[in-house]
Amino acid sequence: MISSNSEIVQKSFTEQAKSFETKTMSFTKQEYLKHMISSVNPQNTDTVLEVAAGTCVCGRSLAPFVQNVICLDLTPAMLAVGKDEAEKQGLCNIGFMQGDAGKLPFLDNNFDIVISRLAFHHFPNPKQCFSEMARVLKIGGKLITIDMEAAEEALRNTEDEIETLRDPSHIHNLSKEEFTKMFQDNHLTITTIDCTKIPVSLSAWLTLTHTPAEISDDILKRLTGEINSNSLTGFKPYQKNGEIYFNQRWIMMIGEKNINRS
Asked: Residues 162, 132: contact at Cβ < 8 Å?
């Protein structure tokens, strides 16, 4: 099974690949990565799978603390950036594989840690992808999801509409309750629910996806309108140093696998 939006995802992230780790974006924030590692508490015997890994930021961050890491992503250009960065860091225990999160090419009960970051909002079938992550996780292993939390119910559609205008590969943000249910349905005991606000520059956010000027102007108008007390967008934008910012709400959930699902 290949995700129904695979071509859109590959097109979007091929364009983003070269600038995905730029310092103008917060997606590689070292403070957050350190926080993630502390929360996961990896062991030197652990085997790790990063799903929909992009440039393999989490995999590269975990690599010095574990036995080995595999980073799987749909877009070769993103994996190429991750591989180059791993080589620069001198990481020798990390491998890169093209593949679809909806059908992971691994045996059941295979990894001690399975992690996915900022990917679930791109999945046409997030439940299927989560189920696959749980399937390949060892009993007693840890499954970690990190993604943007959906806006309050009344503004979810508006938030997703703007996200999709900016990046057509976006489908929808999930709520904390929706993530919680996926953990429960797959017999994973939740040990951590952590919410963090990540400040994002609107201009850098639009530049990363090479959003066309006409669409960028429309998004700018809508967020500026909210600042001026017009219609709400779900982004809750604000001005900082003469620029428009908004806070992404990153939710990290960690669960432990209790039983063999097969």
From this structure: no
